[in-house]
Write a structure and sequence with these properties.
Layout (H helix, E strand, L loop, with lengths): L1 H10 L3 E5 L15 H4 L2 H11 L7 E7 L2 E8 L24 E4 L2 E4 L2 H29 L6 E3 L4 E4 L2 E4 L2 H6 L2 E3 L2 E2 L9 E3 L20 E2 H8 L3 H10 L9 E6 L3 E6 L1 H11 L4 H12 L11
Length: 298
């Protein structure tokens, strides 16, 4: 039921559900159980992926006020709309193909008027994006414009696809067409496809904008150690997902991992459940008993 409401809010202008408020009259009584604190955000994410067309941002907060505990589920307005139900569930009142929309006091299938406005707004957003792209292409010239796939982290140059990190680019030396310096311990370049010729460094798009965070940045932002970060990344299946993660070789055996800023938001959301980190560490240590468990910060 809450998924339906969250999707309806995301398809409108966002919104929130506050737990611990009595109905008629609305009195802040506090939550009577710990169901919200103990729920696994991964289960919510799984249900959203199972029943709806694409993912969207959502957050869960536990708050203390006047000696009472309150919970909050909230979503901002979805960046891509509409979010469509792709699977029926009678218990949750979900219908395949339905678009849920939050009206005043209720969530229900979107009416014609709101649907037309929503579609027109999305078309206008797309038109503005095309205009921006065309203006940028015209300013630099079509021969110097390349296509960067922000989802996969790939840049197309002709028929080739390459992924270059800005810091590696400073150290890279091109020797002849289609070949790179190959020395033990030298930084390497992640290449997809075959490259004929070399693109000038000033025209190569750095991946720092896509994946600006190192593991140590996640540690500092979240006040966690490297083992705790490893457990969270493993539990949420972040590695290998090009929306959130990229890696490249540094030397013969070392591998450097980088993450998108969205990973930080996702980890903060899951860590709002106080027991989530403890459970992740326990589960990881049981699955990989020889990795050397470290003490978990409270």
């Amino acid at each position: 039921f809450y998924l339906r409401s969250l999707v309806g809010m995301a398809n409108n202008k966002g919104g929130q559900i506050v737990f611990g408020i009595k109905d008629s009259p609305h009195i802040p009584a506090g939550m009577k159980n710990d169901k919200l604190q103990t729920c696994d955000p991964a289960d919510i994410n799984q249900k959203m992926t199972e029943y709806f067309s694409h993912d969207f941002d959502w957050h869960i907060d536990i708050m203390e006020f006047d000696g009472k505990t309150f919970g909050r589920l909230w979503v901002p307005e979805a960046g891509s709309k509409p979010i469509i139900c792709k699977k029926m569930n009678e218990k949750c009142r979900l219908r395949e193909g339905a678009i849920y929309y939050r009206y005043r006091g209720e969530t229900k299938e979107i009416a014609y008027t709101e649907l037309v406005k929503l579609i027109e707004k999305e078309k206008e957003k797309e038109k503005l994006l095309w205009m921006e792209h065309i203006q940028k292409i015209s300013s630099i010239g079509p021969k110097n414009a390349h296509v960067l796939d922000a989802y996969k982290g790939e840049m197309e140059i002709g028929k080739a696809k390459i992924l270059v990190d800005k810091e590696l680019l400073k150290q890279m030396k091109f020797v002849r067409e289609g070949m790179f310096v190959e020395k033990d311990g030298a930084p390497t370049l992640v290449v997809r496809g075959e490259i004929s010729g070399v693109t000038d460094a000033s025209h190569v798009v750095a991946t720092d904008d896509l994946y600006p965070l190192f593991t140590k940045n996640l540690q500092e932002e979240l006040s966690l150690n490297s083992y705790q970060i490893k457990c969270l990344i493993w539990k949420l299946n972040i590695k290998g997902d090009k929306r959130y993660h990229n890696s490249f070789k540094s030397g013969a055996t070392n591998e450097i991992h980088k993450y998108s800023r969205r990973v930080l938001d996702i980890l903060k959301r899951f860590l709002s459940n106080k027991d989530y980190l403890i459970n992740c560490v326990e589960e990881y240590s049981k699955t990989f008993p020889n990795t050397g468990r470290k003490r978990t910060k409270k």
